[in-house]
Specification:
With 134 residues, the chain is of the alpha+beta class. It has helices at 10-43, 62-71, 113-122; strands at 48-49, 56-57, 78-81, 101-104, 110-112. It is 40% helix and 11% strand. The structure holds zinc ion (3 copies).
Length: 134
């Protein structure tokens, strides 16, 4: 007596909710994956800049370029203290003066050391001699 089955059993309803939630999550995951795949495919067909050198790459060459670019040795520079004035630093447009710390690239261009370090954060190439793929 008094045992009524109309009452929902807490255990099974909690399980059901968990199962529903899991299923909803799974469906969302599948949707997300599909969306991501579509985006990736669409993305891989458009030209876009290389994240390393920022140069625009054609879609079909992007991956090849990226591999080359990421494995390319970094551009090295020597640092030095200038012994005589050397004209303008083309990064900051101020004069390179005797006694200042400068950086010299393999192409023999010189810049203030700090200027070149800042420049390299954006582009690792000589400001006067940008590499060109053309
Ligand atoms: Zn690159
Ligand atoms: Zn400078
Ligand atoms: Zn140079």
């Amino acid at each position: 007596m008094g045992q009524r089955s109309s009452r929902a059993q807490p255990a099974s309803s909690a399980e059901e909710t968990a199962a529903n939630r899991a299923e909803a999550l799974r469906q969302k995951w599948v949707r997300d994956q599909r969306e991501l795949l579509v985006q990736t495919m669409r993305f891989s067909q458009v030209d876009r800049p290389c994240p390393k050198c920022k140069k625009m790459q054609r879609a079909e060459e992007f991956e090849t370029h990226l591999v080359c670019c990421l494995t390319k040795p970094a551009l090295e520079f020597n640092t030095d203290v200038l012994e005589a004035d050397q004209g303008e630093c083309i990064i900051c447009y101020e004069d390179l003066m005797a006694g200042q710390c400068i950086a010299r690239l393999p192409c023999l261009c010189i810049f203030h050391e700090e200027c070149l370090k800042d420049w390299f954060k954006v582009k690792e190439e000589c400001p006067s001699h940008p590499e060109s793929d053309e």
